[in-house]
Amino acid sequence: MIGNIWLYSTLTIATIFSASVAYKAYSDIQEAKDIQQSFEIISQIKQRVAKEYNKSPEDVTRDEVIAYLPKGPNWEKVLLVSRSSGNTLINSDALLNADGEFELDEDEKVKLLALNAKLKEYGIEQTQETSSNKVTFKMGMQEKNFSYKDNVIAEKVTKTIEILYLNKNSLDTEFTKIIQNNTPYNYIYHDLKKTDTEKPSTSEVKLRKEVYFKKRIKQRLISSKNSRDIEIYDLIKDKL
Question: Is the dihedral of CA 179, 182, 185, 191 positive or negative?
């Protein structure tokens, strides 16, 4: 009888231990998924802030990320801090440091692996280890995203020059319309000038992007030795 009680107790303890291990493994996996999801969302926020303020995504700070978040309960907690109930934005478990970089304890192995996997997916392998048992991950962005946008602008420049040539006899009246119809607004960062005391209006941002696009057209025409491009430049140089 004593042997049966001992066996029953052993099995109960083993079951509890197994359940505890299984729950811990499940919890770690969920934490890892949360880390990856947070990286994805914060990366998108950084791209948008960088585009809006004409700066590198790597220079976007934690405060700027927080300011961009939707107004509502617990958004900051969902995206920026550990899921433990006692954590807040001001404690040491925050996922983002003041520079807007991910920061994790070295002993959070599963989270580190998850974040490393997401970094590699984004083409980022740069990490920096700090002195206080923390690993800091610089939140760089894929260079190919920026080169892709530049390629789109370059293709638009080529297409617009062709349209200008086809309309060379009516450029006095059609030039502005052609520029407005072909400027790839969504792929151009507007210039946030030092003299701006407040956020530029939508119309001002649109105008700045058109000015930039005309500069790209001018650069292409000036550097070209094609007779067609030389002819077009002579016709519109006062408008660029």
Answer: negative
